[in-house]
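User: Some background: our group keeps a shared notebook of sequences we're curious about, and every so often someone picks one and asks for a predicted structure to add to the entry. Today it's my turn. The entry only has the sequence so far, pasted here. Could you supply the structure so I can complete it?
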Amino acid sequence: MPVSGTRGTLKRVVFIAAAAAVGGFLFGYDSAVINGAVTGIQKRFAVGNVEIGATVSSALLGSALGAWFAGSLADRLGRLPVMRIAAGLFAISSIGSGLAFAIYDLAAWRVLGGIAIGMASVIGPAYIAEVAPAAYRGRLGSFQQLAIVLGIAVSQLVNYVLAEVAGGDVRGVLAGLEAWRWMLIACVVPAGVYLTLALLIPESPRFLIAARRLDEARTVLARVEGETVDLDRRVADIESVLRSELRPRLSDLRGHRLGLAPIVWAGIVLSMFQQFVGINVIFYYSSALWQSVGISQSGSLLISFSSSVINIVGTLIAIALVDRIGRRPLLITGSIGMALSLATASWAFSSAVKVGATVTLPGDRGAIALVAANLFVLFFALSWGVVVWVLLGEMFPNRVRAAALSVAAAAQWLANWLVTVTFPSLSAWNLPVTYLIYAFFAALSAVFVVRCIRETKGRALEEMG
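Assistant: Of course. Here's the predicted structure to add to the notebook entry:
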């Protein structure tokens, strides 16, 4: 079904959704930039696996906190003010992280940046779902994940260039600072872009109606749905839904099953499965992982960049299919593909041979491990990477959307933290078993989707419940 209005209307909606999704770019950039900096941080501050795991994952605790209160803050202040606050916090954190004088100082700045990312991770999908016409909501909602993977790719490329300019060493000095510090400081650029765009796009029409700013809501609806739409009727439809329900609060999420409504639990578990498959191990630690099996720093950064390109390809596939074949088929396909590729990677790494301080993969096992890792990234990107964010933006009823999305996103960040903080120690203990654990969760996620997730393709937000 076409969007009401002209091609210009669709272009405006695409721009608005893309601008809101830049918060996802911040997440992707921060996720992957630390991948390139891990080796430099570990050597500069002389820390082990436990300390580096805690430092890398510290941002995720901040993200859980930011996601937790972002929904209620957005319902009080509006969607755009929360975006602007997040952009400012992330810019400050980027500079502080790059100039950190100790490992605990770096961790503190990463927590602050994590709060900003957590806020952006909640407000982006909610805002896009609220401004996007139903026929295009899946593809526009996919912009969040596309922005994440673009952020990953750009940061990997920046990391590689900085390391090369510094002589192939992330501890090489550039303009008085080690290269890994410039990697972290460079995050201030996307933060500035996010802030600028958040000053240009309109407020969510559903928030405006809830705040009784009806004339502004009509203006925004005309921009995103076209001049030919019956604006009074659209406002009345949204207003009737909002008026019949209480203002969103965390207490509204309560239900008879373990204290929360079933739809809220579905969002929480969906979010946790997205992380328990171990995807962010690739983005946080792949450089160090490939170095551990004999690949140089520059080579490992280049491999990480190639994986991020595959991530983009998979995301574009998902964007093309999410509104055509639906959310559930993509999730199930991705779960099966991830389980098989992770099991293959586990098998390849099980043959690693250590001679002195050098670890190698014999014969063709190295190539198999690399292909399996990239297939895992591809299957994740074309399914769980995109679809989870789309579902979180649209699966909850209007009454509790912001609050429920906050809880689900906070659960996702906590799951991400658990995987990230444990991987260095788990991989040092037994890397093949670690990958088998992730493969188990990938297989289990398919069962969860079949049993617990409803299809939302083509349904209006007011029909969710």
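Suggested note for the entry: Strands lie at 173-174, 177-178, 353-355, 358-360. The two ends are 23 Å apart (CA to CA).
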